[in-house]
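Supplementary Note 3. Input sequence used for the single-chain structure prediction.
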Amino acid sequence: MIELLRELVEIESPTGDTAEIQVRVERELRELGARVEVRGDHLYAELDGEGAPLLLLGHVDTVWPRGTLDRLPFRVEGDRAYGPGTYDMKAGLVILFEGVRRARTVRALRIVVNADEEIGSLGSRPLLEEAATGAAAALVLEGSSDRAHVKTFRKGIGRFRLRVRGLAAHASTPQEGVSAIHELAHQILDLYDLQGSGVTVSIGTVTGGTRENVVAAEAEAVVDVRVPTLEDRDRLEAALDELGPHLPGAEVELSGRWTRPPLVSTERTQVLFEAAREHGRELGLELEAHGAAGGSDGNLVGHVVPVLDGLGAVGAGAHADDEHVLISSLDERAELLARILRDPGV
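The predicted structure, written as discrete structure tokens, is reproduced below.
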């Protein structure tokens, strides 16, 4: 498993440049006996078996550009394996393959390994929803921060761009213009006022203006909004629609979309989790259901099937230079997955 992890990490695969690693993943799936279809940049696989299929989800793309390995090579130090993409989520793929291999399950399986998760799974979303249709449950191989943690809910995510248009003027006569930056400052405060009860708003970037002695005619901000429930999403959507200018003569335009709906835990999710918890106890684990503010492909299929997420490797440092997984978690999580595949409780 460590050698396969090394191999996958050393095939650099930033979003948009994943053809090489998908060839390697396809080979691994075929060695498991799966029928594999290449769907654009993505892979869809099936293994025959009884009952409504279980859906396994993983992704090959990372946030790391080619050449990162020169600076951050794969390395093992004690119980930690470091390298770009180890935790998010190439170790999860290793666990997926090993779990299926160990399960020798009679349950039908579907597997989607997509190539655009890091940018919101915009191209693979139809495939994910198609694969979830008729499935009994979805198991997501994203990583976990603790060996006893799995995820049963995640926040929904919206990405928006707020553009403000004003009127340019000389800085010595600001009353003759309308400052887009001044207006944007009002808008940013309005956006932050929408936070609360689990809702978060983050202004990621702000740009605007041309020179220090010119009243800014244009400005914009990129906004990240995260919501725990569908009701919160609807409330925030209405509030965003009501944004309007504070300064006479200013114009405000909001664009963007909700990239992932909230993943909400349901009674069916609880049945799936309870089965997993029993399997965990056999391995000396007392699994706990947790949530996450970050999204995954589980968000995109949660309206179709119950989802158990965070079944991948235990580690930390996603998208950071110290990204790593605990080597000891590979075997433990592969065995947990195998037992869930044999008896998922649904």
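Residues 2-154+262-342 form a domain with the Aminopeptidase fold (CATH 3.40.630.10). The chain has a mean pLDDT of 97.
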